[in-house]
Design brief:
Oligomer: single chain
Order of helices and strands: HHEEEEHEHE
Strand order of the largest sheet: 5-3-4-6
Strand content: 15-25%
Shape: rod-shaped
Radius of gyration: 36 Å
Largest sheet: 4 strands, mixed
Number of helices: 4
Distance between the termini: 85 Å
Helix content: 25-40%
Length: 126
């Protein structure tokens, strides 16, 4: 059974908004896909590389990348006071270490040496 042209015209008029919406969605999808293809083809940028903070990248040559740390090495020595009743040690960068008078400072080269001598980490040092 072949539908009459008047029936098709009525159906088309009734669904006109839906047909336009579907057509617009299909066009947007095709355009988005093509733009994505173009951006990949025209992109000659190097890939994005995420590095930890404090690392500077130097170009050593074409295609050769060298990562160089920009932070200064951390002083691993710990400081204790001769007059400490609590037997606590401080890292050299802690505020507690700067409050100890120079004449009362005892410096251990490592944290392990201070622990072996019976000292524990001060609560204000992290």
């Amino acid at each position: 059974m072949i539908p009459k042209s008047s029936d098709f015209s009525k159906w088309l008029a009734f669904h006109q908004a839906d047909i336009v919406l579907v057509t617009v969605i299909i066009c947007i999808a095709i355009i988005s896909f093509k733009i994505g293809q173009l951006s990949v083809l025209s992109s000659s940028k190097p890939p994005i590389v995420i590095r930890p903070p404090g690392v500077q990248v130097l170009q050593a040559g074409i295609g050769n990348v060298e990562a160089v740390p920009t932070r200064k090495p951390v002083d691993l020595r710990v400081v204790v006071s001769k007059n400490s009743k609590n037997k606590v040690y401080h890292y050299s960068w802690c505020s507690g270490a700067s409050r100890i008078a120079d004449k009362n400072k005892v410096i251990f080269n490592t944290e392990r040496e201070a622990i072996a001598a019976g000292y524990t980490l001060a609560g204000n040092c992290k």
